Amino acid sequence: MEQCIFCQIIAGKVPAKKLYEDDDVVAILDIYPASAGHLLLLPKNHCQTVEELDSEIFSHMGVISQRLTVAMIANLKADGVSVIVQNGAGAEQKAPHFIMHIIPRYKDDKLQLQIPRTEVSKKEIDALYKNLKPMIEQTISGQKLK
Questions:
Q1: Which of 34, 52, 95, 118 has the fewest CB atoms below 10 angstroms from its CB?
Q2: Which of 51, 29, 45 is nearest to 101 (CA)?
């Protein structure tokens, strides 16, 4: 997609610090990093959300993110790594391209990536389970993955 900044980076029309590239994905240093070494792992084919992403590419991104994580922990002496996907406006996705953020974490890095924990009743959990279980089974068994 011509107007997508990430597609322009992938095409070499906009400079970026590419740390990894293969036929399907590219990893670049984020120019607005949450911490030193924050990478953006991008599929080369334009898509905005995980629903649009080819399932084999998504699986490949998982493998590559694991390898990048190992490299960052070893070379940057990170205490851990957060791998984050913000999928859709409701998840605060800002970019017009699917991105897997790979963020090295350090003991006192001050990053606030907290998921609030809300207590719910057994009745609420049971109702949610009863609602979701058949829909998920139908979606996964009846849907041809891209």
A1: 118
A2: 29
What are residue 40's DSSP bridge partners?
Answer: 28, 101
Put residue 131 in one of left, alpha, beta given phi > 0 → left and psi -120 to 50 → alpha: alpha
- Please, what are the domains in the chain? 5-114 (3.30.428.10)
Q: Which helix (H) or strand (E) holds 26?
A: strand 25-29
pLDDT tens track for 88-119: 999 999 999 999 999 999 998 888 877 788 89
Q: Nearest Cα to 47, choosing from 106, 99, 84, 114?
A: 99
Q: Which two tokens stand for residue 53?
A: 């992403």
Nearest to 79 by CA among 42, 104, 99, 51: 104
In whole angstroms, give the CA distance from residue 97 to residue 116. 27
Dist. CA 50–CA 87, nearest whole Å: 7
pTM: 0.85
Separation CA 129–CA 100 (nearest Å): 28
Those residues whose C-beta lies under 8 Å from the C-beta of residue 145, and which sit 6 or more positions away, are: 55
d(CA 11, CA 146): 23
